[in-house]
Amino acid sequence: MDSTSPGCRGYDSFMPAPDPAPTTLHERIPAEASRLVETASARSVTLRVTGSVAVRMHVGEHAAMLDALGRRQFRDIDFWSYAKQQKDLERLFEADGYRADPQMKHAQEWGVKRLIYDHPQTRIHVDVFMDELVMAHAIDFKGRLELDSPTVSLADLVLSKLQIHEITENDLIDITVLLAEHDVGPGDRERVDLDRIAGLMRTDWGFYFTAMANIEKSDTALERYRALPSELVSTVRERLRAMRDRIEAEPKSRKWKLRARVGTRAQWYETVETVDR
User: Fold this and answer.
1) CATH number for region 10-265
2) Over the stretch 93-118, which tens digit does the pLDDT of each residue have?
3) In this structure, how many other beta carbons lie within 10 angstroms of the beta carbon of residue 173?
4) How far apart are the C-alpha atoms of 66 and 16, rounded to whole Å?
5) What is the pTM (predicted TM-score) of this model?
6) Kind of pairing, strands 114-118 and 99-100?
7) Of 134 and 105, the one with more pLDDT
8) Which end of the chain is more exposed for a tag (fewer CB within 10 A), N or C?
9) Distance CA 215, CA 210 (A)
10) Three-state SS across the chain?
């Protein structure tokens, strides 16, 4: 690896220059995500950014590190919202020129709480999950979207990464940079609420098993992130350890214990389509 490779450069060399006018899809997406949240709020509709866009919004001090570690650029926007506001959401996106995925109408008849839109002019793709994220594991977020804005809470953002069965390098980078910027602990808007994370794991062995594996993968990934300063490696590792210890310490439900006896002899996650995150 030569001196121009991201893995060899010090973090200081990645401090961003003043932003020019956004021209690429990657550059336009964060502003569009914020605008849609503001537009929704003006109409009394609850809409929050999640996914990779939310990660970048939450790591102002360390945003350049995402690029230094090779994080893929944005291709779309993920949102969370409430199913009770579905009609208002549909009107909001359609009024802004977004076109609905016709297949989702059929999926909703089978109970899928999700909206998918594409904008023909901007080429921005939007995915809206309502009431719960149902992927490899389920995250019920009803009543939690008011905790932060314009993004979901830090704990829910971390959970959305920990639930991924086939976690990607992009997701590991997201976890790393989030924990470089934010401490872990009880409910604070700028801290990752470990009570929320451990509370969800205490009843769901499958989620617990996947999350603990992803925490271990995140810890291992630190060894290959050469652009990450050593002091931040120590900080992230310490926060991963605190998260792991808090999850382990949480008393587990009877359902959790019964499922743990079966272990990996039965599939513990839902199979989902391949997604570019």
Assistant:
1) 3.30.460.40
2) 999 999 999 887 767 756 679 999 99
3) 24
4) 11
5) 0.88
6) antiparallel
7) 134
8) N
9) 9
10) CCCCCHHHCCHHHHCCCCCCCCCCHHHHHHHHHHHHHHHHHHCCCCEEEEHHHHHHHHCCCCHHHHHHCCCCCCCEEEEEECHHHHHHHHHHHHHCCCEECHHHHHHHHCCCCEEEEECCCCCCEEEEEECEEECCCEEECCCCHHHCCCECCHHHHHHHHHCCCCCCHHHHHHHHHHHHHCCEECCCCCCEEHHHHHHHHCCCHHHHHHHHHHHHHHHHHHHHCCCCCHHHHHHHHHHHHHHHHHHHHCCCCHHHHHHHHHHHHCCCCCCCCCCCC
Instruction: Give CA–CA dist 150/2, Å, rounded.
Output: 39
Helix axes 205-221, 230-249, angle to 10 degrees: 160
Contact 135, 270 (CB under 8 A): yes
